[in-house]
Amino acid sequence: MRSKSVVYLIFGLVVFLLPFLLPSDYWIYMFTMVGIYMILVGSLDLVYGYTGLVSLAHAAFFGIGAYSSAILQVKLGVPLIPALIAGTLITACIAVVIGWPMLRIRGPYFVLGTLAIGIAISIIIHNWNSLTGGVSLSGIPMLPAVTVMGLTIDFASKKVFYYVILIALILTQFLIRRLVNSRTGRTFASIRENEDLAEALGMNVSRYKLMSFVTACAIAAVAGGLYANYMEAIEPEIAGGHMSFNLLVMIVVGGTRTIAGTIIGPLLLWFVPEFLEAAQTYRPLFFGLILIVVIILMPTGIAGKLKELHPRMAKWIP
Known about the structure:
Layout: H1 2-21, H2 25-50, H3 58-76, H4 80-102, H5 107-127, H6 129-132, E1 137-138, E2 146-148, E3 151-153, H7 158-180, H8 183-193, H9 195-200, H10 205-231, E4 233-234, H11 241-254, H12 259-275, H13 277-281, H14 283-297, H15 301-309, H16 311-316
Antiparallel strand pairs: 1-4, 2-3
Helix pairs in contact: 2-7, 2-10, 2-11, 2-12, 3-4, 3-5, 3-10, 4-10, 7-10, 8-10, 11-12, 11-14, 11-15
């Protein structure tokens, strides 16, 4: 237990000092982006892994959060933090409106329904030129530099934004862990295992499914708002079905219901292809091959497989 704490401490220290260990801003950008994907995959795990709902509209809510926050800043001059909060609330409201009828259908019908919603939202964003800018919305401002006790924090710096994403990742994982380890989380698990039995035992299944869905969408919206300000320009493709599929593959490959799976999936399926430029061209093939291998040999994902190898190893994998 003691050695485990030491290893975790060293890992945390390396993650904290990473911007100072990396040779260039390019690498900081890469790890910042993978952090955004980890937030997204973690939120999708809440819906898919813990509640058993296969949503192919998750990227759509990432896009709604990104565009809501960005439009408020670009068109109305709202500062970043209020715009980020408003964008998250707007996304949560839309998730309630969409989720309330959608979550009453099950299985492949729910999957197809979320896929259709994701595509529809992407098309709306692409064609509503006067509001979303059409093919691209640019000019999204970065947070101004802040001086605290004589120390100037420049949010335009890639190092500073790395820590912003790191803090957001820790907070969202903390929120998700608290939720899934609570009575509400146990209800999510019972719905995942046997929805009919949970309903027969008197659980308000629709309400809990909606709670899981809206919470996950709100976290995705926070990631979207941060992404928009980091990139300073966004495109409708971030809300498309292709993006949702990639997120789903990441959590399936990484392993559901584990923090390790949330880390492994984006590292393996976003970071590695981006790093290996040749692999970018063959990314769909890369995704497909890894997905087939994992489904056949590791149905619980890489993290799940590692935990199954030995009880001692399971204790080391969060």
